[in-house]
């Protein structure tokens, strides 16, 4: 016995901890909230649809995406608001890059 | 934190604040403005006259008012006219910002601290804070720019006056974390605390003191949450756009409660990013102020 998996966002009350202890669990692993990740992926897909054209999606755009991903190295996938900021910042910066290169 | 350690930290802060020789000074006119604006009897004309009597400060204000950022079709030639066009609070905050920027142009005790980059981040944060306020919290639009511009001022103080703060800058780079995390670990306190103490020492308005103190941790206060929230969100946005805060090697994280209170949406984030980049492109006068 030892480890139990619980969903992120669930409240760990004193009573719940006592019940888990009685049942022999000594470690709790938090399962990340998948809904945030799914929402971010859907948002990313909507934004990315704009760049399927090969002409627009050149090396500079890929490099910019890498740079932005590196800036967010400490942000977990399950952090909904931060992932929204990442995706929308990326959208704005790529739009501007594409425009500055005269590709749109 | 152990009791002895906490006492040491308080002592360091006290030493820093009492060592007036090391701390930058503000012009007397700003001290007078801060005192005057605390009094209910003061009116805009009094403050306008006071600023106009300082030619250097007036020139700086007029340079900012006539910059592309404000985009007035005709040249504004007097501080009184600037007050009519922009409002008393904005001009007062402009005077305060110009004087603080002026006071922190020197290079400090931390060799790796880049004051030019520091002001670029600060100006971007000022513009973004104003954009957030205009769109999501219009009641605090007058205080947002100055709050964003000065939110990191404590970093300039520690880099300028505390040799030991080099450890924090080094650790942030090594651990790839934010400056506040590294500062608490190495010197026992963060720049927000130092910045707020300096703002208090300079008699800045209470809203600004609290904004500087709580912008990185908005959930620790219930007061002035609108302006603090705007600056907090703006700092994250500008860091995401590439205007990294001095000594930050990780993204600051937005508070969920601020996100909800401001009712932020993906569309508003995109609009705020656009607004910030557009504003920054027109803000050369603000950047020059730090370089002049």
Task: Indicate the topology.
The complex is a heterodimer of chains A (104) and B (292).
Chain A: E1 3-7, H1 14-22, E2 27-31, H2 34-48, H3 59-71, H4 80-100
Parallel strand pairs in A: 1-2
Helix pairs in contact in A: 2-4, 3-4
Chain B: H1 3-18, H2 28-38, H3 44-52, H4 55-65, H5 79-86, H6 88-103, H7 115-136, H8 141-150, H9 153-161, H10 165-175, H11 179-186, H12 191-201, H13 206-214, H14 225-240, H15 256-261, H16 266-281, H17 284-291
Helix pairs in contact in B: 4-6, 5-6, 6-8, 7-8, 7-14, 7-16, 7-17, 8-13, 8-14, 9-12, 10-11, 12-13, 13-14
Element order of chain A: H for helix, E for strand: EHEHHH
Tell me the number of strands of chain A.
2
Radius of gyration of chain A: 20 Å
Structural class of chain A: mainly alpha
Coarse structural class of chain B: mainly alpha
Shape descriptor of chain A reads: rod-shaped
Examine the coordinates and then state which fold CATH places here, giving the name of the CATH topology of the largest domain in chain B: Hypothetical protein af1432
Instruction: Tally the structural domains of chain B.
Output: 2
Return the average pLDDT of chain B rounded to an integer: 88
N→C terminal distance of chain B = 43 Å
CA-based gyration radius of chain B: 18 Å
CATH superfamily placement of the largest domain in chain B: Hypothetical protein af1432
CATH class categorisation of the largest domain in chain B: Mainly Alpha
Largest sheet of chain A: 2 strands, parallel
Main β sheet profile of chain B: none
Q: What is the number of helices of chain A?
A: 4
> Averaged pLDDT of chain A, please?
81
| SSE string of chain B | HHHHHHHHHHHHHHHHH
Query: Which bin fits the share of residues in helices of chain B?
Result: 55-70%
């Amino acid at each position: 016995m030892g480890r139990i998996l619980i969903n992120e966002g669930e409240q760990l009350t004193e009573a719940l901890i006592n019940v888990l202890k009685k049942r022999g669990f000594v470690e709790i692993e938090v399962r990340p909230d998948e809904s945030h990740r799914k929402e971010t992926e859907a948002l990313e897909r909507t934004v990315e649809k704009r760049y399927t054209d090969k002409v627009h999606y050149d090396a500079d755009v890929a490099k910019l995406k890498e740079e932005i991903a590196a800036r967010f190295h400490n942000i977990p996938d399950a952090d909904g608001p931060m992932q929204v900021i990442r995706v929308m910042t990326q959208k704005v910066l790529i739009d501007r890059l594409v425009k500055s290169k005269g590709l749109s | 934190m152990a009791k002895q350690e906490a006492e040491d930290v308080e002592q360091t802060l006290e030493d820093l604040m009492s060592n007036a020789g090391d701390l930058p000074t503000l012009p007397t006119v700003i001290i007078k403005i801060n005192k005057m604006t605390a009094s209910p009897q003061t009116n805009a004309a009094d403050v306008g006259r006071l600023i106009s009597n300082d030619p250097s400060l007036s020139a700086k204000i007029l340079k900012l008012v006539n910059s592309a950022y404000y985009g007035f079709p005709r040249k504004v030639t007097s501080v009184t006219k600037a007050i009519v066009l922009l409002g008393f609070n904005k001009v007062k905050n402009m005077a305060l910002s110009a004087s603080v920027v002026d006071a922190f142009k020197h290079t400090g005790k931390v060799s790796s601290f880049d004051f030019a980059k520091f002001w670029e981040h600060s100006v971007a944060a000022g513009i973004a804070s104003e954009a957030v306020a205009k769109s999501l919290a219009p009641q605090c639009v007058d205080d947002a720019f100055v709050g964003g511009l000065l939110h990191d001022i404590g970093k300039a103080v520690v880099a300028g006056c505390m040799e030991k703060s080099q450890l924090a800058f080094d650790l942030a780079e090594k651990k790839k974390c934010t400056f506040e995390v590294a500062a608490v670990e190495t010197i026992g306190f963060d720049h927000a605390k130092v910045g707020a103490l300096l703002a208090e020492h300079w008699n800045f308005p209470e809203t600004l003191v609290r904004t500087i103190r709580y912008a990185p941790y908005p959930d620790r206060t219930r007061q002035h949450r609108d302006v603090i929230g705007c600056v907090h969100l703006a700092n994250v946005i500008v860091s995401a756009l590439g205007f990294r805060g001095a000594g930050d090697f990780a993204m600051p994280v937005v508070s969920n409660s601020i996100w909800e209170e401001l009712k932020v949406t993906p569309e508003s984030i995109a609009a705020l990013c656009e607004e910030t980049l557009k504003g920054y492109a027109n803000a050369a006068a603000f950047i020059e102020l730090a370089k002049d």
